[in-house]
UniProtKB/TrEMBL annotation:
<keyword id="KW-0418">Kinase</keyword>
<keyword id="KW-0547">Nucleotide-binding</keyword>
<dbReference type="InterPro" id="IPR027417">
    <property type="entry name" value="P-loop_NTPase"/>
</dbReference>
<comment type="similarity">
    <text>Belongs to the DCK/DGK family.</text>
</comment>
<dbReference type="InterPro" id="IPR031314">
    <property type="entry name" value="DNK_dom"/>
</dbReference>
<dbReference type="GO" id="GO:0005524">
    <property type="term" value="F:ATP binding"/>
</dbReference>
<dbReference type="GO" id="GO:0005737">
    <property type="term" value="C:cytoplasm"/>
</dbReference>
<dbReference type="GO" id="GO:0019136">
    <property type="term" value="F:deoxynucleoside kinase activity"/>
</dbReference>
<dbReference type="InterPro" id="IPR002624">
    <property type="entry name" value="DCK/DGK"/>
</dbReference>
<keyword id="KW-0808">Transferase</keyword>
<feature type="binding site">
    <location>
        <begin position="189"/>
        <end position="191"/>
    </location>
    <ligand>
        <name>ATP</name>
    </ligand>
</feature>
<keyword id="KW-0067">ATP-binding</keyword>
<dbReference type="InterPro" id="IPR050566">
    <property type="entry name" value="Deoxyribonucleoside_kinase"/>
</dbReference>
<protein>
    <submittedName>
        <fullName>Deoxynucleoside kinase</fullName>
    </submittedName>
</protein>
<feature type="binding site">
    <location>
        <begin position="141"/>
        <end position="145"/>
    </location>
    <ligand>
        <name>ATP</name>
    </ligand>
</feature>
<feature type="domain" description="Deoxynucleoside kinase">
    <location>
        <begin position="10"/>
        <end position="209"/>
    </location>
</feature>
<feature type="binding site">
    <location>
        <begin position="14"/>
        <end position="22"/>
    </location>
    <ligand>
        <name>ATP</name>
    </ligand>
</feature>
């Protein structure tokens, strides 16, 4: 049974470099919501993963899964169960989305059994902001962010992830119509440098939060 709570729990999602962390940080400051940030550099396998995906993918995905499991357990205990609102730069589903691309079949079968056990009763976001963007935009932003290990990202890997995100968001809206998915055009919106673009996102989010509160 998924843990129940009433507070807004907003997840910002999208492929690598779409702007999730940047937008989540700005929203947490604007709304004074608790910010849940995914770990990246603390994953000891990630740099090895980018050098040899097949060799290091299982440990990479399992590390992310276990870390996020603990983060979300603590989030429920310390924030959501107490009525505090949250904005996060990830949704736990991303773990599965990456694993389906990076794990070979026999590893994926084991991973999915563990994923279902660990995530079955975790708190789930009740609003999703989904940033999509073209491959060129993603590659440019990854380059601008400048993480050494990401310089070896294969564009086809990123293209496949982007496609998987598109499909997942369509499926999610169909399966969970009560959870609004606000899609943002990452090619057109510069919420980092353009206050008008950011305020338009806030307007859409205000509407979604107000609507959810009216249903409580
Ligand atoms: N909408 C945007 N317009 C322009 N630059 C952006 C935008 N979103 C993010 N960036 C820049 O792109 C880089 C990646 O952003 P980041 O928030 O780390 O993406 P993600 O968390 O999705 O990987 C950062 O340098 C950030 O400043
Ligand atoms: N193989 C996986 N890699 C992941 C996962 N979550 C994040 N990441 C990588 C992708 C980027 O290099 C970096 C930061 O991710 P962003 O989406 O914030 O750009 O970490 C995962 O579950 N599996």
């Amino acid at each position: 049974m998924t843990k129940q709570f009433d507070a807004p729990f907003i997840a910002v999602e999208g492929p690598i470099g779409a702007g999730k962390t940047s937008l989540a940080l700005k929203l947490s400051e604007h709304y004074r919501f608790h910010l849940l940030e995914e770990i990246v550099d603390e994953n000891p396998f990630l740099s090895k993963f980018y050098e040899d995906i097949d060799e290091w993918s299982f440990q990479t995905e399992m590390f992310f899964l276990c870390n996020r499991f603990k983060q979300l357990e603590d989030l429920y205990e310390n924030q959501l169960s107490k009525g505090y609102s949250v904005v996060s730069d990830y949704h736990i589903f991303k773990n599965h989305l990456f694993a389906k691309q990076t794990l070979r079949d026999e590893h994926l079968a084991k991973y999915e059994r563990i994923y279902n056990i660990l995530t079955g009763d975790l708190p789930r976001p009740n609003v999703i902001l989904y940033i999509n963007a073209s491959l060129d935009t993603l590659l440019n932003r990854i380059s601008r962010r400048g993480r050494e290990m990401e310089k070896s990202i294969d564009p086809s890997y990123l293209q496949q992830l982007s496609g998987d995100y598109e499909q997942f968001m369509r499926d999610h809206q169909h399966v969970y119509p009560e959870i609004p998915v606000i899609t943002l055009d990452g090619d057109r919106l510069d919420f980092v440098a353009n206050p008008h673009d950011f305020s338009r996102i806030v307007d859409q989010l205000d509407e979604a939060i107000t609507k959810k509160r009216s249903l409580l």
